[in-house]
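One such shown below:
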Amino acid sequence: MDSNLLKVFVEVANEKSISKAAINLGFAQSNVTSRIKQLERSIGIYLFHRVPKGVILTNEGEKLYSHALEIVKKIELINYEMKNIKQQEHLIIGSTESNASTRLISFLLQLNKDFPNMSLELITNTTKETIKNILEYKVDIAFISGEPKTDEIIILNKIDENIVLVEPKDKICPNTFLSFKNGCSYNEFGKNYIKDFLNEDFKHLEFGNYETILGCIKAGMGKSILPFSIVEKLNYTKDLKVTKIPKSIVNIPTFMVCRKNYTPRIQKYLEEFKF
């Protein structure tokens, strides 16, 4: 049964007039009459009685009306939702802890300002787990450390990072490497850097947040390798010895990414966002 014919039928039934329905629908009166006849032929029953002032529903027409009205309203709702599909109603953001500690608050504030009707959700984890969340459709976009190594993920934006070696400022530093938990990109690079470039054997301690790592370094427990943005954001630049590692040795930008086949509706906005 043609939903367009049902729409005409409902309009005629509501107005009790073919001429008024034709005006509302923007059709010629003959077109409306033709469509009503087409619907009647398709289901094998008469839907209207003709009366001096217009038309009224037959008993069979009364039975069809409630079903037809429901179908027409559902189609109108579907059309409305499809026309507004470019609106992002909900955005789930995955992020590394390092990015959440530095620039994510300002990003979320700007998103909320530009899209006041969009709800936001944040999930923080390591780069390894955040990539897994992207691939499993658990988050819409994500901030990860280092370029993704799978064709299933595309890059929306890029943020350069200065990677630094962080040590106690006025204390003898033991050969202890302090890092974020396993799965962190800086964790993996840091262990290799200390072993291969500094030629040191070391003890390795993992922590759940960067505030704790920097506090322990200040207390003389060891050293770490982090983005300078974290040291700066947490106000430890004057309390620690900070040595920049050349980009020729390490270059680990932060990337905003999404799944290739699951791009957000505000993709262009995210690609043009200035961090």
About this structure: The chain is about 45% helix and 25% strand. Residues 65 and 123 are 49 Å apart (CA to CA).
